[in-house]
Write a structure and sequence with these properties.
The structure holds two protein chains of two kinds.
Chain A (H helix, E strand, L loop, with lengths): L1 H13 L9 H28 L3 H15 L3 H16 L5 H26 L3 H10 L3 H31 L11 H12 L3 H36 L6
Helix pairs in contact in A: 1-2, 1-8, 2-3, 2-5, 2-7, 2-8, 3-5, 4-5, 5-7, 6-7, 7-9, 8-9
Chain B lengths: L1 E10 L2 E11 L4 E5 L6 H8 L7 E6 L2 E2 L7 H5 L2 E4 L11 H12 L4 H15 L14 H13 L5 E5 L7 H16 L3 E5 L3 H7 L2 E6 L2 E6 L1 H6 L4 H11 L6
Parallel strand pairs in B: 3-8, 3-9, 6-7, 7-8
Antiparallel strand pairs in B: 1-2, 1-4, 4-5, 9-10
Helix pairs in contact in B: 3-4, 3-5, 4-5, 5-6
Chain lengths: 234, 246
């Protein structure tokens, strides 16, 4: 085991970098974080369009959400790989392709999470803010989003975890993220598949479990703030 | 101050407001009453355009509030509105509930907004709860905070949509006291309520609505002692007698 780590540990963590493209666990995390950071705003925009009363916003957004959500992630990656270059007229790097697929795919899931979160905030909240004279945008910023965020925190983290796991599909299009590296190492070493894929599984588990725990702590803190804020007279 | 001109509003086939024309003067205290579904909540909600109207005009200080190009947010900031369900912002402290509008609409500095909010909270008797969250307050306290939240903007006009209907009976008094105090200080008030005692005591005029029409309008004395319409008499009989005749 120590020999495995000595020989392949760095390869597992960063791929061929700096003599080749960045890969391994670093690429996995980079893809995951970038995908979440880009998919979340896309999700918010799609959600707002879905809620909108304007049909020109509502219908296209709804169609995109339904179509993409009704498709396996793998299909979306193939689309991004084969159709996106044809669509935009030039070739894209593998990382960009994978990132685009992840953002589109998870954006639609975030859209539904955000939509549910926003619609969970009572209508009276919107009315009260508008009656005060706050604009629609300010109402969203100060009244609706803060409350919606609390509603949707658990589902958001679920989706973060899902995104992270989906990065492993990148090996399909030849990206050397951590699971690709694991299979490479395995085909070189041959005799330790359990150890190698065990390490891979543990890595993913540690990342996802860590995220879930973090979410749990956050949720608790939100709940405590709500319940135990000291009373002015006590 | 407020002028309704031939206002009509429909919910599908239901005529919620039927040719409503009415003028409410500056400084006047007007109570709107009537059976449920009579259009009184709809009427008061059209004054700051929480409800759209289908025809007619509503002028507030001469400005057509339902005109397409009206600066609605600016107008709304000078019309206080109090809801039946309070609708305080549950994620913000009582103080933040009250400073939100002055800071984000008037560009007031946080310290100044805070001082002003505390003064208004003092006036409605909940200054000691400034740092509490709305969920930690009783219904009566919450509604008084909601009134304070509107008052911080120093609106010349306040609208109340059944402000005591969601309250436990023993908390109705504290809220009505606050509204009464505003009335006595010359603010223009429009209040939808079932509190007939309050209406008799505070209102300059009472409007009685039924099926979207304003059936009766007059001083409390005229309304209670000498109502013109059979429908009004029946309404008064029903709310007075604990055993209404069928």
């Amino acid at each position: 085991m120590t020999e495995l780590i000595r020989n392949y540990g760095v390869y597992f963590l960063i791929g061929q970098f700096p003599h080749g493209p960045l890969g391994g666990l670093a690429l996995t995390m980079l893809l995951g974080v970038a995908a979440v950071l880009l998919a979340l705003p896309l999700g918010v925009l799609l959600a707002l369009a879905r809620i909108s009363r304007r049909r020109l916003l509502h219908w296209p957004a709804t169609a995109v959400v339904y179509v993409v959500r009704g498709t396996p992630a793998l299909m979306v990656i193939f689309w991004a790989y084969f159709f996106l270059p044809a669509l935009i007229g030039h070739k894209m790097g593998q990382v960009t392709t994978m990132l685009a697929a992840l953002v589109i795919f998870n954006g639609t899931y975030f859209a539904e999470v955000v939509r549910a979160g926003i619609q969970g905030v009572g209508r009276g909240q919107m009315e009260a803010a508008r009656a005060l004279g706050l604009s629609h945008a300010k109402t969203l910023r100060w009244i609706v989003f803060p409350q919606a965020l609390r509603n949707m925190l658990p589902s958001l983290v679920n989706q973060f975890v899902a995104t992270l796991k989906e990065t492993s599909l990148a090996s399909i299009i030849g990206l050397q993220e951590v699971s690709f590296i694991a299979s490479q190492v395995n085909s070189q070493v041959v005799v330790h598949p359990v150890a190698i894929y065990g390490a891979l599984a543990l890595t993913f588990f540690a990342l996802c479990f860590g995220l879930s725990r973090l979410a749990h702590v956050l949720e608790k803190r939100v709940a405590v703030q709500r319940l135990e804020l000291p009373q002015a007279d006590g | 101050m407020i002028e309704f001109r031939q206002v009509n509003k429909y919910y599908g086939d239901l005529r919620a407001l039927a040719d409503v024309s009415e003028t409410i003067a500056h400084g006047e205290v007007v109570v709107i009453c009537g059976p449920s579904g009579s259009g009184k909540s709809t009427l008061i909600r059209t004054i700051n355009r929480l409800e759209e109207i289908d025809s007619g005009q509503i002028l507030v200080d001469g400005i057509d509030i339902h005109a397409p190009d009206v600066r609605l947010d600016r107008l709304r900031s000078s019309i206080g509105f109090v809801f039946q369900q309070f609708n305080l912002f549950p994620h913000l402290s009582v103080l933040r509930n009250c400073t939100l509008a002055p800071i984000h609409l008037r560009g007031m500095r946080a310290a100044e907004a805070r001082d002003r909010a505390l003064a208004v909270l003092e006036r409605v008797g909940v200054a000691d709860k400034a740092n509490a969250l709305p969920s930690q307050l009783s219904g009566g306290q919450q509604q008084r905070v909601a009134i304070a939240r509107a008052l911080v903007m120093e609106p010349p006009l306040m609208l109340f949509d059944e402000p005591t209907s969601a309250l436990d009976p023993e908390m109705v008094g504290e809220v009505l006291r606050v509204i009464r105090d505003l009335a006595h200080h010359g603010m223009t008030l429009v209040c939808v309520t079932h509190e007939m005692g309050f209406a008799r005591e505070v209102a300059d005029r009472i409007l009685f609505m039924d099926q979207g029409f304003i059936l009766e309008r007059g001083s409390p004395r005229e309304f209670f002692v000498n109502p013109q319409h059979a429908r009004t008499r029946r309404f008064l009989a029903d709310i007075r007698s604990p055993f209404p005749s069928d």
